[in-house]
Amino acid sequence: MSTNVPDIVGRLELAVEAAREAGWITLEYFRAADLQVERKEDDSPVTAADRRAEEHLRHRIVEAFPDDAILGEELPERPGDSGFRWILDPIDGTKSFIHGVPLYATLLGVEHEGEPAAGVIVVPALDECIYAAAEQGAWYVHGKTPPQPAKVSECKTLADGLFLTSDVATFDKIGRREVYDRLQASMRLSRSWGDAYGYMMVAIGRAEVMIDPVVNIWDIAAVLPIIEEAGGVFTDWQGRRTIHSGNGVATNGLVHDDVLAITR
Prior knowledge:
By secondary structure, the protein is α+β, with helices and mostly antiparallel strands. It contains nine helices and 14 strands.
């Protein structure tokens, strides 16, 4: 990777600060009785919290790195010529958010020359954060505790592991329900603690497999560097290291081939 590490470190520091701030903004709306929910063209939900949080993220990025490009879920793409692109999801898990479920997250990913180079996942309602940058390790923070190294589990078999996904129905939508059924049958436990929270669970060693049949780039841009720096593996369902295939699977690495044998 041609990433200039000092440049990445500076951007990661901003990403952690800005993601935390955006998360605090979402908490102003979380479980609010008067929360207004709109529907986008693809019928996915959006709220004022999504928009305000993304506006804040963009302001902080433009202020510090005006030549960087920005791609976000809610607002138009902003071009740049620095070689860096920020990929934002102000509320990953909006459906959980609007139902008062605390497993939603704010995501910031940073690409350099098209390569995922840094990522931050903040889970505001649980006061958890995980972040990573290329060759800098992955770090987990809960509350006011000092950052701790994030490491995937050492579980070597599916039969001993925890399998997570965002929405079982998405397997049906792409005609691959057998993938879910086989993984559920192969693993010790399966739960739908999904979206970014599921990927965080893999990165800190609490789960072995997190899989999504359908994702957008802003759902996983932050995830790939975090999983890799924590010692795991992130690929698409065919085993390609990419965030552009529209699906994804993260594991502790030790069971990755076993999962790909099912998804391929």
